[in-house]
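User: Quick sanity check before I run a bigger batch. Here is a single chain. Can you write out its predicted 3D structure?
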Amino acid sequence: MKTKQLTEGSSLFLDLLRAFSVQLVVVGHGISFCAIFPLLQPPYFPFMQNIAVVIFFLLSGYLISNSIFYNISSNKNYSFTSYFIDRFSRIYSALIPALIFVFFIDYFSVFKNSVNYIYSDAFNIKTLIGNIFMLQDFPFLKHISLKITSFGSARPLWTLAIEWWIYMWFGFLSIKIIKANKLSIFNILFFVFLCIVPAYNIIAGRGNGLTIYWLFGLLVCLLYDKYKNLELKKSIKWVMLLLFLLLAAARVGYTLQEYEGIFVFLLAASLLISIELSSNLSINKNLSKVVRLIANYSYTLYLIHYSIYDFLLSHYKNDFSGNTLFISGFIISNITALVIGYFTETKLTKFVKVKLKGRFVPTTLSK
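Assistant: Done. Predicted structure follows.
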């Protein structure tokens, strides 16, 4: 695969989509917690937070595969070690601080009123360590009395574990097996191990096939150049985009199933067209800064917002209206994530990446 780096326009569009989607998650969980706007929830409207999760997996499938293919084609020495460090620094530089935040907010919640705390079974050292090693809902562990769920009130962490194992599986397959063609016994056995979670989430698991939806993102990457070479008129592209979006909206509106193959396929087709249409996108500099700012703390926001809403509703439900709690939770979640994310998602991620590559990746391989 000879892929190109994203244009400034496409990169900005994907950041905009990421920023919008994470706010959709916060709003979706917020209105569910606060029991407001019933017409924006089932049975009248699909769960918007689930739609956002689908978008995240599509984006992840596209971005990760595009990054791998680009690095393989532009650097013959590109290694799985380098890829692992990229993913590890990105994921864990925000995850560990988020887990610490969740620990303290949950600890305070228990101290304030343990009766209202409903996650006692998941608030322990076993679950914390399990989450650090991405063992949330790991298949077969429940059969040996080691079932791991999301830590404490951080309920969205179940999706993170699925993405992590897909990252490792696809990266190892692309770099270590296909590119390097190293079929040693160890590599084969390790690859089989990495297949467990992605394979399980094709046919089962929460989210009804999230691996498939990630692979739809990969398909967007694989088809992008062929689609672009069709040289369709821009007006036709816009009509196609509108048609796919309308069909997707009609599908999810009819089924009320966000984790559903046809719906996600229609979103994937929309993503393919949107990335190409946005390649020459130009947005006001100030607006671009806002989009980048929100995108830069979106991962942290995804990790901590649920715990913040849970804390507010557990202790102040009888003191304030649902609308007040919703707005408060939205603002507090964004401000907290902005502050934490500034140090973790930007500065700490770069620091960890540089240090690890300096230690484990030879200079000639890290270029």
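DSSP finds 14 helices and no strands in the chain.

User: Great, the batch can go ahead then.
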